[in-house]
Every structure is written in C-alpha cells, then in structure tokens.
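Q: I'm writing up a methods section and want to include an example of the input and output format. Could you take the sequence below and give the corresponding predicted structure tokens, formatted cleanly so I can copy it straight into the document?
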Amino acid sequence: MTPEQIVAELKAQLLADRKKRGIKTALERVMDLPHQDFMPTPEGTWPGGVDLVSKWTNAYKRGTPRAHRCAKPLREVQAVMLEECAWAAAQPDPIGGVFAVGVGKGKTLASLLIPEVFDAKRPLLIVPASMRTQLEDDIFEWSQHYAFRLKYLNVIYYSDLSRPKATGLLRELNPDLIICDEAHNFRHASAARTKRFIRYVQSKPQTRVVLMSGTMTGTGLSDYAHLSEIALRKWSPLPTHDNDIDIWGSVVNADGEPDDKAWAVLHDLCPKAAEEHNVDLMRAAFRQRFATAPGVVSTVTSSCDADIELYAEYPDTTMEIRQHMARLANDWVLPNGDPVVDALHMHRAAGQLSCGFYYIWDWPGEPDEEWLHARRSWDAACRQYLKLYAREGCDSQALLEKYVRNGGPAILREILDEWDEHRDKDQPPTKAVWVDVTPVLHAVQWAQRQPGRAFLWYQSRAVGDMLEAFGIPRFDNGSMTPDPIAHPICALSINVYNKGRNFQAWDNQLVLEPGPNGAIWQQKLGRTHRQGQTSLVVRCSIFQHTWANRNALEKAIRRARYIQGTTGEPQKLLQATRTF
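A: Here is the clean output for your methods example:
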C-alpha cells in the first residue's frame, strides 16, 4: 500500500468514526440542512407564489364595506416571508427568520403582519430612528387595508439600545418576538446595542427573532453569522464558530485571502470551485445553500425596472488641493502638520480634503499646549511604528497601545505614559478649515444646471454647512423629509437619509463624498431606484477628481460583488451603466 493510500484510508476511518459519533464539521452541518421549496426564479417569482399571495392576502385583509378599504394584494416576496414564518411557528424550537430582502421590496408591511403569523403576545419592532416618519406613514397607509394589532406592538429604535441608560430596556419590554428591520444595524457584535440584544435573547431563549435587511452583509460573513444563529439556531446556514467564520470568509469575503487549507475546508460545497480556486463559483455555491435553507428568504431581482447610469464628475482641482493631497499621501500629515495615524484616519482625511477642507481643534480659549504635545507625540510615534513594524495582531493604534501596555518598547511606553496624563481632559470641539471651496461650488453649479429634481449627497457636516451657505436647502435631521415640490433641489446627509426613505419623486443625484461601503451605496441608490420610480433612468453623478474618491468607489464596487455573489441580491452599483 502506497503512502498516499495509507493516508486516504486513515482519513476515511476518521471520517467514519466521526459520523458514527455524530460529530459534524461546520460545512457538514450546513450541507445537511433541508432544502426549502421557496427558491426564487431568476425572474424573481416563487413556485406557488401566486397561491401564497391569495392565501395570505385573504388571511389578513380588512373587510371591504367601502371601495377604499379593499386590500391591496401582497407581493409574492411578502407572502413568501409570511409562509416561512408559518413554517417557523410550527417548529418545536423557537425559530424566527432571516429575510435578505432588497430595498423597496415591502419589508415594512411584512413586519407588521409577522406578529399575527406567530400569534405573538408582546412583539417588538426595532427600526432605525431615521425611519420614524416613514414608518408612521406606512402604518397609516397599510392599516386601511390589513388588520394587525398595533396596540400590542412596541416600536423602538436602534439608537435607543445604544444609550447608557438602556441596559435593561429589552428586559422591561420582555418581547416574545423581536423583528429587526434593517438588521444590519446589529452587524457589529462588539457594539453595546448588539451585546444588549444578544444578552436578552440568551436570557430568554424562547424569544423568536426575525431579521430583515436588503444589506444584511457589507464586507464579510462576520457581519451576520452571529445574527443568523440567533434567528435560526441550529438551522443557520452559516458557520457558528469564529474559526470557521474566518476560514469560510477568507474564501468568499470581499477582501478574503484564502490559503490551501481554506479551499480544502469548503471543497465539498463546490469541488470545482475549490480545485480551480474560483471565488465566484464558491460564492455562487454558498448563495445557493444560503437561499434554500429553511427560514431564509433571499431576493434575486431589483425592486425597480428603471436603468441606473453612473457619471463621473470632475471639479477643478486647484494646485493647493493637489499639493495637500500629495503631502497627505506621502507624509501622512494634514495641511497644518498634524499627523495621520492609521488607514481609517487617512481615508477620512483624504475624502474631506477632496471636498476642500480638513478639521482642526477649535479651542474656546488658549490651546492646551501640553495636551496637544502629548497627543501629537503619541500619534506620531504610533504612525512611525506601524509604518515600519505593523503585523497581524498589531496593525492599528488601538492594538499597538495594548501591545505597549503589555510590555512593548520602553520608549513607546514613555510617550504613552505622557499621553495618559492628559488624555482624560475634555477634548475641544473641532472646526473645518477650508483650503478651497471650488469642489462644493462645482456641486452647486451642477445642481443649478439640472432640468428637474436632484439630490446632493454629502457625508461631512462641514460640506452640508457650505452647501447651505450657497443657498441649497440642507436636510440632516431625520424628522424632516424634503418635499418634491418645495425642495426640487436639496442636500441630504448620507448618514441620516441613506435608508428607510421613499424618494422615488427624484431621479437624479450627485455624490460629493463617495465612500467605500457597498451596503451604504445599495441603500443610498435605493432611495430613488425603487418601486414607484416613473423615470426610465435614474442618474447618479459621483465626484471622481481625486485618488481618494476613485479608490473609494472601486472598493465599494468590489464589496458589492461580494454581496451579490453571496446573497444573490442584485447590487445597484453593479447594475449601473458606468460612463467613465
């Protein structure tokens, strides 16, 4: 017997012994899950979907004594979500659902009817605070057509769970069903609100959880593996242990770097992909297994038939901006000489300089020179060390600080000790210093040239202030919504208005500060590219005049490929026709 045959026989014996003892790998457990019938066709319909629409529309529609009370029929995807909830309700385990349903597909109405399917006594709906007004409007609209018990439904906002005094909020509400609309707000397992959410479900294991999001994941499986396990328990189609999540993610994630071991671990999911090291094929196999798992609904078509066109916009880049951008890239310093420490700070500062400004401390009186010196010294020391010695486990300022406290270089400890003496002082506020307003002025002139309605999307408050100073109505308060008649041209904060709003009355937009987050791009474009859009084409112009803006867009597109490849949800960035 050859050595290879001996190894193969030993592996077979170990596998047989593991199966005999009921031990499964993460992949074996996932592949052994039943396959459901509710896999959408490429056209976005479901087998038996028409019958399900009739079944669930008739189940909850209001009586029709007057014509305006006639129920609008559910969409197929809404009926499928309710059917999946009915399956979950019949299980002995407290199963919920994972609904990776795209922007504009009708998640709000489904979230109001799901408590009826589960016959929940204390249902809780969690939504972003920015959706408050839209949710109120939707409840009023749909209550004319469908019967749902609003008096039993509690509604809170993700921001409520982030407040220091909210540690016992879920315990006080004691929900038996939690529906998370825009569930990606719980993607960070280390965030306070996520910890409170998980802690409550662990303390009340009979609580059912339903997750809904058109952007369940943005960069990798760790965005939602913990959420899938909470909602589906043993039925989760994702790995549940950190090591397995990392190994699977190295293959399918947006920025994954798989080794031979990772390909071998996922070999049985798609042998051809593993043998050819084909990421796209492996993502497709993962998507198929995810979408057919019990309790999962995943859409595969866009919510809007309009085309999307992307245009590059190139404001004049003055010599001053070019010089400061070059210095930032080469020396990692801001125009005033302050050091930029890590990659996150670098990307943020580069995006701001692309619009013509940067932030400095705004001291109310005399600057605290000792605080400034200690902070700058520590930042500069971190920057230099990470530039020369960054490595896994020590590649950010926070990790370097931990390393220094645990016995790192003595010279760094001295600098850190000096910073420790001052770091607890109150930080001064910041203010924007404008190098050149040409990019913002270009955006204003672009808006004035548009024949119809148009948005100006911005990220930084300083940009919003400048747009407003040039006469563009600015919206950065979630309680206020622009009116298409009164505000045909207006500026919207990306942080506030990128989700949960219906802006199909607009079909044109300019993004002044393009970011690298593919999930945010999906949500942002989905405000106008959604059901109800009457224009044949939705247009989006994007500032691309600096390396920072170009890199951000390319990274967003790369992440969009990951999202579409693993979830099947069409990404608007990838649907779009690029004219540059």
